[in-house]
Amino acid sequence: MTQELTKEDVTALILSAKKQAGLTWEGIAAQIGMSPVWTHSAAMGMNAFPPEKAELMVRALGLPQEAAAVLSESPTKIWSQTVPTDPCIYRLYEIVGVYGPTIKALIHEKFGDGIMSAIDFDMSVTRVEHPKGDRVKIEMSGKYLGYNAW
Amino acid sequence: MTQELTKEDVTALILSAKKQAGLTWEGIAAQIGMSPVWTHSAAMGMNAFPPEKAELMVRALGLPQEAAAVLSESPTKIWSQTVPTDPCIYRLYEIVGVYGPTIKALIHEKFGDGIMSAIDFDMSVTRVEHPKGDRVKIEMSGKYLGYNAW
Amino acid sequence: MTQELTKEDVTALILSAKKQAGLTWEGIAAQIGMSPVWTHSAAMGMNAFPPEKAELMVRALGLPQEAAAVLSESPTKIWSQTVPTDPCIYRLYEIVGVYGPTIKALIHEKFGDGIMSAIDFDMSVTRVEHPKGDRVKIEMSGKYLGYNAW
Amino acid sequence: MTQELTKEDVTALILSAKKQAGLTWEGIAAQIGMSPVWTHSAAMGMNAFPPEKAELMVRALGLPQEAAAVLSESPTKIWSQTVPTDPCIYRLYEIVGVYGPTIKALIHEKFGDGIMSAIDFDMSVTRVEHPKGDRVKIEMSGKYLGYNAW
Amino acid sequence: MTQELTKEDVTALILSAKKQAGLTWEGIAAQIGMSPVWTHSAAMGMNAFPPEKAELMVRALGLPQEAAAVLSESPTKIWSQTVPTDPCIYRLYEIVGVYGPTIKALIHEKFGDGIMSAIDFDMSVTRVEHPKGDRVKIEMSGKYLGYNAW
Amino acid sequence: MTQELTKEDVTALILSAKKQAGLTWEGIAAQIGMSPVWTHSAAMGMNAFPPEKAELMVRALGLPQEAAAVLSESPTKIWSQTVPTDPCIYRLYEIVGVYGPTIKALIHEKFGDGIMSAIDFDMSVTRVEHPKGDRVKIEMSGKYLGYNAW
Amino acid sequence: MTQELTKEDVTALILSAKKQAGLTWEGIAAQIGMSPVWTHSAAMGMNAFPPEKAELMVRALGLPQEAAAVLSESPTKIWSQTVPTDPCIYRLYEIVGVYGPTIKALIHEKFGDGIMSAIDFDMSVTRVEHPKGDRVKIEMSGKYLGYNAW
Amino acid sequence: MTQELTKEDVTALILSAKKQAGLTWEGIAAQIGMSPVWTHSAAMGMNAFPPEKAELMVRALGLPQEAAAVLSESPTKIWSQTVPTDPCIYRLYEIVGVYGPTIKALIHEKFGDGIMSAIDFDMSVTRVEHPKGDRVKIEMSGKYLGYNAW
Amino acid sequence: MTQELTKEDVTALILSAKKQAGLTWEGIAAQIGMSPVWTHSAAMGMNAFPPEKAELMVRALGLPQEAAAVLSESPTKIWSQTVPTDPCIYRLYEIVGVYGPTIKALIHEKFGDGIMSAIDFDMSVTRVEHPKGDRVKIEMSGKYLGYNAW
Amino acid sequence: MTQELTKEDVTALILSAKKQAGLTWEGIAAQIGMSPVWTHSAAMGMNAFPPEKAELMVRALGLPQEAAAVLSESPTKIWSQTVPTDPCIYRLYEIVGVYGPTIKALIHEKFGDGIMSAIDFDMSVTRVEHPKGDRVKIEMSGKYLGYNAW
């Protein structure tokens, strides 16, 4: 029936254009003036591009103009594996399983009864040189939200 | 039958002693010369204390001497909720669901085909002041492990 | 081993005292100056009492003094039924299943790409008279949180 | 084989027409004289349009005439994620997990042994201005149904 | 801690008294003037006894007086097996799986878009003689509830 | 590869023909001399038509002749939702959850140790007028099967 | 509270008496005049003993007299592992997974549209000598039940 | 891309040819000199045909020559329903649930600590006449495998 | 009721005796003349001790004499985590997920259509020195079992 | 939309080319100078080919040149069956269930608190002749990783 571009289509177009142009996520992120983590997740359809950033993506990767509106739509965030199987992602799940109660306890100790927001949130992934083997550094920052009592 | 101390018993003793002495995890960690994240997770039975650190814990919290050996045993790390329900921990699970593929893509871009170790790993949780509301900062660092090809 | 009061113990004490004193949640809530929804959920161990409210609970229900500290601890919110079976609670789950995507679409239309907070949140349950049968009215209010782009 | 319009087809046609005409759910709802919540959910195939409302939808959005009959069919309400992953919808699931037993207890206190109907039911979503950040207000109203004893 | 009677305790008392007195559910139901289906389900803690029926139960089975209040409490209806394993109960689950969509289609044909209430509901189980083997007859009756459109 | 009619194809043909001819399940059932419940479930592919009834279906609905053989094949009865989400079907699941143990207890009381067959089984759905709102009546009848002891 | 014998208690008593008397299931079965398969499953609480067989069990194993009534109660058949983990039992599950559709096809070919009853059912397990290693032989026999069409 | 025959394709070709030629599984099995159970399961892709049997299948059913190689490939045995819903197959699952521990106990009694192989295994399904209704007889035979101790 | 030693009791006794005597699994295995893998798994209740090995265990660890018979009973092998959470065990599950189809393909290539037995099976775990960090070596050996065709 | 080769496409091309050329995994592995286990798993898309090995694969199997880049991409490792059903793979899952805690205990005894890496890992599958039937030998070797304490 209707043949409009979906978020999945635009993600495929981005991946294809990135490959043919030999770009990196870091490079694309720099071109649109955003961070690599956010840029990749939005390109995967897990975040919505503000309109001007969507335009920059279209230009940077030579996407069809109608892709801009699609990139700006609020996505429905869906993941199909309750427990991820890919080892790289599973290790993150394992960290939540092992250290989740610890993070919770320390947030309570440092802030009070509340949580770290996953919405007012940002993150970076960097490579840190180390004599015994380089290390992956993940930094997360989320606004503290205290529980309401009413 | 046998009535020896289990890891669960020692965790209960620690929580009770901490409460009565009015201690914080940060304070206990300082007393034994370890980080608060590791100290809490080991106290919960999710990590094993090196023998000398176990001794320090026993002294710092006035635990029975036999607790030291229990603290040093290698734990079996078990969590019972495949998807955690507590909002503070669920947000971390959500971050893995939303950003897991992104972290994976950036590790591949920066390092090659491999993962961040969850074993040769450390983490901190800190409070960062911010005019629009203070923020929780979580920093994770794990050794990059490249897949073997043989 | 240690025989301290747990959150479950205090919930049981509250239910028992409430029954013997012939109190209602509405009445208890009025005595401590909080809403009935919050008061019940905190009494069930799903929210933490601010210290002064914990003191009021202890006095209102004649609980042992040590219960106050327990009521003030940050709870770990756990529910064991992924899909609730009790018909009264299931209907709420059903409403989320049927109308969840609709609520999401209208939040996006009225606010932008974001969510309703379940932390900076309050709720009331009231009875509304109606000629064809009285109605249950549930009002929820949560702060709008817009997704961060960084 | 047979090539008739399905509910999914009509939903796609509606979304496409809405986008091209630059309409809002609020606007469409006003045109057919129904509420935005109900209109969106029926457009998604989660409720059946009364025949005259189906005709109004066809006219308002320029749908093919045969869509009217499809819009009037009783839908089979299916959702595939037992626990929703989208953060905006998950927060509602979380509210049911945390406050479900509380809503149940207050219904019992105010009405007796029964439930809030999810069938004889209506809901609204509104934006409420607030100095510390605007709030999402969700109001649900369902007929009280008392359990039968026979 | 507190040692009050729970619904489970009262169910156990009922089963024990019924066995010692050599009663049947049909007999108990007759004594309290209710149907056997409802009486059994309420005795199992799946329905609440109106106060006067609770008194009759206490008298009919010689239960402790405090059991009456427990029998009148609104139960939380919980079943732990998502798919029941007992063959007698599984067959009912199978009937829902095989004939559920058929019952739905016929309700829509005969009534419109709505459901059979499971709250304003009653049921009977009877034995019907038959030359090829007696038959179990289950009769359910629930109020038709039409979906609201608003 | 092979392009033969499947059970799903024939169900689609039946639904399409029924719609175009403006028939009801009750009407189709009368034409082939079977009950509405059985007719619908067999048309959905959940029961096999005896050859002569298959011929009647083909004639009544103007199906292609080859559909008759397909209608007569023994189906594999599959349902994909362990817990059905449609409210009309869920209520039946709920009834099994709440009253399953009660039905079992009364079968044991009236017959002995055995079950109600779901194979040598029939069912009807009827509309019963009622001053407070019409009611759905479901009548099930299954042969009692006593457990074998050998 | 009440301290009556449960089915689990009687199973434990049987296992203990069997061990101390050095009996086999074959031997016990012979003493009560039933097959070993049925005897074991009834002793495990998966089948009900006819009263006279219950008496024989009590005598054969020196059980307390009140055990007879418990042995005669209709059990609720519950297994907790949806997929059994014990290799000996898993192999049977695997056989159902691999050969279930085949058994179904051959029943349809030999009998028509129906099933093998698991209620009017019996089974034996025997040892068959074989030069390449003795074999386990399992023979099941269940009444054919044809689907009803009405 | 590549358009080679898959196991699923060949199964479809077999079912189609069998239908058009009016064959039975018993008949096909006789033609290739194998048992009906094995023949059906191999035709469904649950077992691999020895090359000469594959040739006989191709000839018996007039399959394309390239089907022979496909029939001889080792299949990956997959079933998608953890708990089968078709009543005919579910009854077998139920038998494993109810009698699995019994079969295990009798194997241990007759052979020692081990299992019945599901690999060195054969099975038959036959119809047994019976005055009260014919019976399905399933005979399984698997090599006893004793656990290794090393 | 009966107070006999269970497999769990004996496992606890072994662990306690091993700790107090400062033994290793390697040491205990050497004392009873079995391998460390088998000895540990049998001590955990996952394998049955031949009677003479059970006697040696009793002597080596100073267990009560009645423990010998318990150690010789055929265990029911149960694990409760479908997906293990402990990182050390999860990695093994991951290896099966990633390399399972590969092991299957190579077994088919080297042997034919069949499997590696997990019953006629043995395994060792050894430490292998390596300049870049010592390695864990796991060697498994199981009898090849070819599928029967009949 | 875009029509580029995916990992699944290349796997299909490899399987087809291997079949037509009559190659074995052992043979292909020898041609590219890698082990059969690694070669098969990488060909299945479970590991990434180093660029020069990808080129060798393309040449050895006559794949289109663009396949080389695809073979070198980091795969997302996904398996869809939490518990594998194929008997050959299930036996490996069973071994992890039965012996996982034993492998863990022996690693702790021989190395300390840590795990065997599944990333810095290699494996072989070989056929070992044996008078009572040849055996499958699986050898795994992974770097020992000790838990960090910080």
Explain what the structure shows.
The structure is a homodecamer of 150-residue chains. Chain A has helices spanning 7-21, 25-32, 36-43, 51-61, 67-72, 87-110, and strands at residues 114-128, 135-146. By secondary structure, chain A is of the alpha+beta class. Chain A folds into two domains: 7-72, lambda repressor-like DNA-binding domains (434 Repressor (Amino-terminal Domain)), CATH 1.10.260.40; 87-146, Cyanate Lyase, Chain: A, domain 2 (2-Layer Sandwich). Chain A has a two-stranded antiparallel sheet with strand order 1-2. The longest helix of chain A has 24 residues, at 87-110. The radius of gyration of chain A is 19 Å and the shape is globular. The model of chain A has no long low-confidence stretch (mean pLDDT 96). Chains A, B, C, D, E, F, G, H, I, J: Belongs to the cyanase family. Chains A, B, C, D, E, F, G, H, I, J: It catalyses: cyanate + hydrogencarbonate + 3 H(+) = NH4(+) + 2 CO2.
